[in-house]
Amino acid sequence: MRWLWLSKTDPGRPWAAFNIRVHPNVTAMFAISVSSLVGDGRTTLFWKDRWLHGKSIEDLAPALVPFVNKRARSRRTVHEALQELRWVGDIAGGLSVPAIVDYLELWDALENVQLLENQPDQHLWTPESSGTYSARSAYARFFVGSSGFEPYKRLWKSWAPLRCKMFLWLAILNRCWTADRLAHRGLQHPDKCPLCDQEDETVQHILTSCVFARQVWTTVLGRVGLQHLAPTLEFDTFKDWWRWAARRAPKAARKGVNSLVILTAWSIWKMRNRCVFDGRHPNARLVLQEINEQANLWKLAGAKALGELLP
Length: 311
Known about the structure:
Layout: H1 2-9, H2 24-33, E1 34-37, H3 57-60, H4 70-75, H5 78-82, H6 86-89, H7 97-110, E2 122-125, H8 135-142, H9 152-156, H10 162-172, H11 179-184, H12 203-209, H13 211-223, H14 238-248, H15 254-277, H16 284-300, H17 304-309
Antiparallel strand pairs: 1-2
Helix pairs in contact: 10-15, 12-13, 15-16
């Protein structure tokens, strides 16, 4: 996207004339994101750019454009097109009735267009109020309409190892292979939660409402004086509890608390896997031991705030 912007706004660069291959989706996004104010018309494409009443000729005369020579459509500038009505010569073939109507309307719209010599065209990046391209706005535009991931800051900006972050990302999206997903696909699955043997197993239950998990959360958070933030039965999902707890944690230690939450969730999940695959019995002491071991590794990685949280 930046390449297209620079080639449009700074054609004097030596590489601007190179025929660089760009993905069609990027080209289409660039076309609807740039609006041109015509001066001398030398850097604005007549058929493709949005320069006439804020729209492109392709938008104003859609029935006519298919009859335009493809080479001229991609290269003809406004300055060239208006010289001796060259744009008319770009049209070939027997026009349909809708194309003739578009042709006449386009002719009327171009009658009042006056080029300003010695005044270069201006190209505006419409997603930004300043009119200047930014990678941030381009990236945001590509993701318009996409579904968001609410705890992304708490998750991706923590000190947790990537494997722990990836696990929790999948858990929040209910993509872990617990009994509910296995049963839905007709696969073998445990009848009850392997940690508490009381309720049906889901990843939300394992991390939030399971009796064993709540015991672990109370113990871990109690070490840092935040036992009042341990999950209770009123929370249906881990995401809801985490949001609630993070907002009530001390601001100075919030990043460390979020890292501790991720590590604890990961350790609970590993204990669940030991019970399922190795036939082990739930053991809160082993979970706490692993949390301490991992926390010490994080200290070596520079997570000093987390080291202060876990004595």
